[in-house]
Write a structure and sequence with these properties.
The chain contains nine helices and seven strands; from the N terminus they run ββαβαβαβαααβαβαα. By secondary structure, the chain is α/β, with parallel strands linked by helices. The chain has a single domain, classed as 3-Layer(aba) Sandwich (Rossmann fold), CATH 3.40.50.1820. The longest helix has 19 residues.
């Protein structure tokens, strides 16, 4: 199955693949979309299975393999990966398993394979599960919005996240059968791409700790903490994140002037 996706920019421009968080879908990159193309890149954004316009899985699946299949379909041999939250786990798997396919990594409040989840994060997950089991989907949506949208996220941002999370819940809860993603074994030491690890000062501690730890786990990584950000900085202050991303990409995957 080819993931639902969008492509912009020139075919010969360096590809930048945008991977969404677990509370959003590919629409979370609306603010970066045109600017990346204008900066000389070829942005590609997709919906993981069960999010946005991609259907729920009908068998065990791998998000990383789905993204690699999409790149093959589009004829993209090598790409920079820009990923948010759980999308960061997918990006790291691709970069470790297929390092020759990844030119750079920009990880925004990324998850990390093997991370030991804190009591705070377990409690949030338990509250979410309890609300969904009780049939209170709206309540679960509001919990996710309150948890993951930082103080810079105004009413429009909260409404956007609310809509994307509600879509994901509705699609996934309607599935006749639930399939878990396939967890592949891989070694982060195999990652060769330069990495920008971004954290938000107002985010849950797990994600701040992961971003701070990545320079010690990857061959070429640096950590930047945004003092104003929560968990979704690309939505909370879009122009600041676009500037940060374009600056990083220009230093690692230069694009021709257009």
């Amino acid at each position: 199955m080819t993931l639902s996706h969008d492509v912009a920019g020139a075919d010969d421009a360096p590809a930048v693949v945008l991977l969404h968080s677990g509370v959003c879908d590919r629409r979370m990159w609306d603010a970066q979309w045109t600017d990346l193309a204008d900066a000389g890149y070829r942005p590609v954004r997709c919906d993981f299975r069960g999010f946005g316009r991609s259907p729920v899985p009908d068998r065990p699946y791998s998000n990383a393999d789905d993204v690699l299949e999409l790149l093959d379909t589009l004829g993209i041999e090598r790409a920079a990966l820009v990923a948010s939250s759980s999308g960061g786990r997918v990006a790291l798997e691709i970069a470790a398993r297929r390092p020759e396919r990844v030119s750079a990594l920009a990880l925004l409040c990324s998850a990390l394979p093997g991370h030991e989840v804190s009591a705070e994060l377990r409690e949030i997950g338990a509250r979410e599960d309890g609300l969904l089991e009780a049939g209170d989907v709206a309540g679960a949506v509001e919990l996710m919005v309150d948890t993951w949208v930082g103080p810079e996220g105004g009413p429009d941002v909260r409404e956007a996240v609310r809509g994307m999370q509600r879509r994901a819940f509705d699609v996934q809860l309607a599935a006749l059968e639930e399939f878990e993603p396939i967890r592949a074994e891989f070694d982060l030491a195999a990652v060769t791409a330069p990495c920008l690890a971004v954290s938000g000062a107002h985010d849950v501690a797990d994600f701040r700790e992961i971003a701070a730890a990545l320079p010690g786990l990857l061959a070429d990584a640096r950590h930047v903490e945004l003092p104003w950000a929560g968990h979704l900085p690309s939505l909370e202050r879009p122009s600041a994140v676009t500037e940060l991303l374009v600056g990083f990409l220009r230093g690692t995957v230069p694009a021709a002037d257009r």
